[in-house]
């Protein structure tokens, strides 16, 4: 039989590679044929894996038994520090694990990351392996940590294996240990968005406001990941909604950076400080504008945040919108009413900033809003304030519609229909269609 290296990247001869493959697929007949031809059953590939590694990882029971008849070196590790026993635990092959244990495999083995049998089974969610380890093996260290400081409980939580989490709690594992980044299990569940696991951990009575190495609580991590259900659970459990990280950021800052906006209502209802600023004097609104997160800006504006807060460059949210040409966001802010005379560190108003960036539409919007603000100041009356506010909104809306080349009458018709004011919409349509002076007829119907 012609033999040779499989490829330039491997160190196995073809017959040796074929032997490994046969072990993977539990083809003991082909394995025995190759053994009779003199193949080295202990040969390792470039990852230091031999046939026993492949058979154990694949759950090939007959292949494992055959190999153990010829190779009793069961504790050999690959380049990742994984031996046959750890691979069996990792892939959930209980029968293989029992065979290896019965042949005297080392039970205290660890891979290069410090993962032992318990860690491997917990991370992968293999409850039957865990039950066997805890009930049939001796001297099991339930709270032993890997090189990142994580216990089996941490790993089960981090990967969302609720059944394993419940099993380990029942076995008496420690709930409050921290890993090397000072994350508790609660942090890990919140970060990954495992709400069912989070609920289970909270039932153990652990502190929900513990901070990790960055000063982040579970709420911060849930907010950063945009995990709505985790945020809801933590708030209902009474966590401190205004807790600050080491950079003075609240959960609202993190929602503004990483979320779609749905979580804002939860935080607002819980009483979060809308105007809190971080070490750069940046508010959640600044971050949302900078990221062009229109939905989040709307949520913050609707919640009543301060639109005139300035950051460490003395820029307001409108300055940032003007600088980056965020037309839709600028429109939202202008409709709500802001101070257009505020200057940044360079002595520029938001109008100056928009003009410098050649953002023509934003410039035009600010000019028209400024005119309206001045008119409103002179003509403002309390009893007609609602009309003035409506006029301001319509003025800015009309500018956007005309700029986009759309039919404003059609837009009004559709808007009125959308809020079920069909009689008014129909009246307006009829008036527009009979008025010869109307520049554009309503052609919706």
From TrEMBL:
It comes from the Eukaryota. It comes from Sinocyclocheilus rhinocerous. SUPFAM superfamilies: Ankyrin repeat, DEATH domain. This is Ankyrin repeat and death domain-containing protein 1A-like. Keywords: ANK repeat, Repeat. ANK repeats lie at residues 14-46, 47-79, 80-112, 148-180, 181-213, 214-246, 247-279, 280-312, 313-345. One of its GO terms (biological process) is positive regulation of transcription by RNA polymerase II. Transmembrane segments: none annotated. PROSITE patterns: ANK_REP_REGION, ANK_REPEAT. GO terms for molecular function: transcription cis-regulatory region binding. GO terms for cellular component: nucleus. It holds the Pfam family Ank_2.
């Amino acid at each position: 039989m012609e033999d040779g290296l499989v490829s330039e990247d491997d160190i196995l001869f073809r017959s040796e590679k074929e032997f490994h493959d046969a072990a993977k697929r539990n083809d003991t007949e082909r394995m025995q044929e190759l053994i009779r031809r003199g193949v080295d059953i202990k040969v390792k590939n470039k990852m230091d894996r031999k046939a026993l590694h492949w058979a154990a990882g694949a759950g090939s029971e007959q292949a494992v038994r055959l190999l153990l008849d010829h190779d009793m070196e069961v504790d050999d590790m690959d380049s990742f520090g994984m031996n046959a026993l750890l691979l069996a635990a990792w892939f959930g092959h209980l029968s293989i694990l029992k065979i290896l244990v019965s042949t005297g495999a080392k039970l205290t083995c660890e891979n290069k990351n410090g993962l032992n049998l318990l860690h491997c089974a917990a991370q992968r969610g293999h409850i039957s392996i865990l039950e066997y380890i805890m009930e049939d093996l001796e001297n099991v260290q339930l709270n032993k940590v890997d090189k990142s400081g994580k216990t089996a409980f941490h790993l089960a939580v981090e990967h969302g294996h609720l059944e394993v989490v419940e099993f380990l709690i029942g076995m008496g594992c420690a709930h409050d240990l921290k890993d090397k980044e000072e994350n508790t299990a609660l942090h890990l569940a919140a970060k990954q968005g495992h709400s069912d696991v989070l609920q289970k951990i909270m039932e153990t009575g652990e502190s929900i406001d513990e901070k990790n190495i960055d000063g982040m609580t579970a709420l911060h991590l849930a907010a950063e990941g945009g995990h709505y259900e985790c945020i809801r659970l933590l708030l209902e459990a009474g966590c401190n909604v205004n807790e600050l990280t080491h950079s003075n950021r609240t959960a609202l800052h993190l929602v503004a950076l990483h979320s779609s906006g749905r979580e804002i209502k939860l935080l607002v209802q819980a009483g979060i400080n809308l105007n809190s600023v971080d070490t750069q004097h940046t508010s959640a609104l600044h971050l949302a504008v900078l990221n062009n997160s229109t939905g989040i800006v709307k949520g913050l504006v609707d919640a009543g945040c301060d639109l005139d807060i300035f950051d460490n460059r003395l820029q307001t949210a409108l300055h940032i919108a003007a600088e980056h040409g965020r037309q839709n966001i600028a429109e939202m802010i202008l409709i709500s009413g802001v101070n257009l005379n505020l200057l940044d560190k360079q002595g520029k108003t938001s109008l100056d900033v928009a003009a410098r960036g050649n953002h023509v539409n934003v410039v035009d919007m600010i000019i028209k809003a400024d005119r309206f603000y001045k008119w409103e100041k002179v003509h403002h009356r309390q009893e007609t304030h609602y009309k003035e506010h409506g006029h301001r909104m319509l003025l800015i809306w009309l500018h956007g519609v005309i700029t986009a080349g759309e039919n404003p009458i059609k837009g009004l018709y559709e808007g009125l229909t959308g809020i079920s004011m069909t009689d008014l919409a129909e009246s307006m349509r009829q008036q527009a269609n009979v008025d010869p002076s109307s520049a554009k007829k309503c052609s919706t119907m």
